[in-house]
Amino acid sequence: MCGRAYYSERSVDAAAQSLCHQKTTCGTPSDSDPGSRVIYSIKDSKKNSGPGHTFRVIYASANGSVKIDEMIWGLIPNGGSISSPHRIPTDEGFSVSPHYKMFNARSETVHEKVSFARYIRSGQVCIFAVDGYYEWTQPIQQVKKQPYFVRSRDLRQPLLLAGVYARVKTGREDESGKDEMISTFAVLTADAHPQYAWLHPRQPLMIPDLELARAWLKNNPRNVLEEIRDIAGSTLWDNLSVYPVTTKMNDARYQGDDCATEIKLKKVRSIQTFFSPRTAHDKIETEDESKSAVKKGSKPKRKCASGGIESFFKREKDTEPKPVAGSPSETSPSAEIAISWQCSTCTYVHSRPEQMFYLACDICGSPRKVADLASTKKPKKVR
Fold this sequence. Notes:
The chain is α+β, with helices and mostly antiparallel strands.
């Protein structure tokens, strides 16, 4: 997973309402919930965001209720200190770099690694609801990477990404004298579905239905994790849509309205097309391009020679060089011509085949005289 997502308040609210529909209660963090105080805010929509940015994330509190809290994407497992405190987005000099170190975790080994195992054991798991996420590929014969957007075929259905979260002290105190807390999370990943492995070898672990989502938040996460991975890897991709988007997305700061708008990729011709005869369709297309270019006032594109490379060499073989004006071969094809000629100024002898047709000396540049043909070596008949 490349770590870029399309986030909106609509997706979070839709996911929270669905999860709270059966025998659960929804709410926002309160002062009675330990470590839930946050002092940073977020915007309503983030069309191109990644680690280091703040999002509303769904989790389950100790009493089993589903809640929503503001967290920073990019897990920070350990608390800060007075000498080296953690910075939050509202601090001057805040950097997203520390959050890129642990912004995702492999679901296959999350319960084994020390950095993440404690969150699985303690039930500190969450759901990151997004409209979709982005991946990049490197097309052949192109410099820029091509971004793709992955979303649900049903635009009303957000993607539910499984994750783990942590709440630690920043190492400072807030205005009320209490410990300032920072909430961060990481997204779990799994092997990509074989059908879309060309896009990226890994993909975020997406929870396929609401029942598994509730079980992920409230039951033993380790047992539910295996079931989520099996179902997501086999059936989930049938309900997803993947398409290319604008290369403006290569800039992490871009937030245009066309971030998730599908585009049509330009066809890049294979090198084999340059060594094969052109079809009638190609000829018509080239003529149309030339006409449109003339209308716009620009120079038309040069047309490639028809017939492919074989016809090119055939034409070169069949083409005979034209004789020099005034030479014997011009008046009589069967006449004899010289195989060399000597410059009357510098006496340089031109004996190479291509020099036979020079109208000036290759050394001094003096014009060639017709009389120089008489001083050449033995003649040779032209076949």
